[in-house]
Specification:
Elements: E1 3-8, H1 20-23, H2 28-42, E2 45-50, H3 54-63, E3 70-74, H4 83-92, E4 96-100, E5 122-125, H5 130-148
Parallel strand pairs: 1-2, 1-3, 3-4, 4-5
Length: 149
């Protein structure tokens, strides 16, 4: 069974009350529940981790080295300057999909640059919690294709 890490960076813990017009009204717990339900249907296992501290995200990646087949990451504000997170994602040597609830390209200029995108298989943004579920479906398919050779 494939196992994926779902990483969430700074401020994602306050979903539901943080700018609902941008991030939606669902809490992180509700988003994680949706992801878990889809993971069960897809026959994959997911592990969730959120931190407002970049080093804790890196620690989580390192603690899961060799035990995961992919990572879905919403870096939050670390999208723009999280170089140690980027290095951790690179070192994990698994496919990475970057997700965002809102569309960073429809916001301030400084939000439009990601230090993660160039090492990710792709980025899904602007679809609320569907960004995560789309990423999970895609990552699951990618891993199955790679395993099939």
């Amino acid at each position: 069974m494939s196992r994926f890490l779902i990483l969430n960076g700074p401020n994602i813990n306050v979903l539901g009350r943080r700018d609902p017009e941008i991030y939606g009204s669902k809490t992180l717990e509700e988003v994680n529940r949706e992801i878990s339900q889809l993971a069960e249907k897809l026959g994959v296992e997911v592990t969730f981790f959120q931190s407002n501290v970049e080093g804790h995200l890196v620690d989580c990646i390192q603690e899961n080295w060799g035990a995961i087949q992919g990572i879905i990451v919403n870096p939050g504000a670390l999208t723009h300057y999280g170089y140690s997170l980027k290095d951790g994602l690179i070192d994990a040597k698994v496919p990475v999909i970057e997700v965002h609830l809102g569309n960073p390209y429809a916001r301030e200029d400084w939000r439009r640059h990601s230090v993660i995108t160039d090492i990710a298989r792709g980025q899904i943004a602007g679809f609320g919690s569907r960004s995560y579920t789309a990423a999970l479906e895609i990552l699951t398919a990618l891993i199955k294709e790679e395993e099939a050779g």
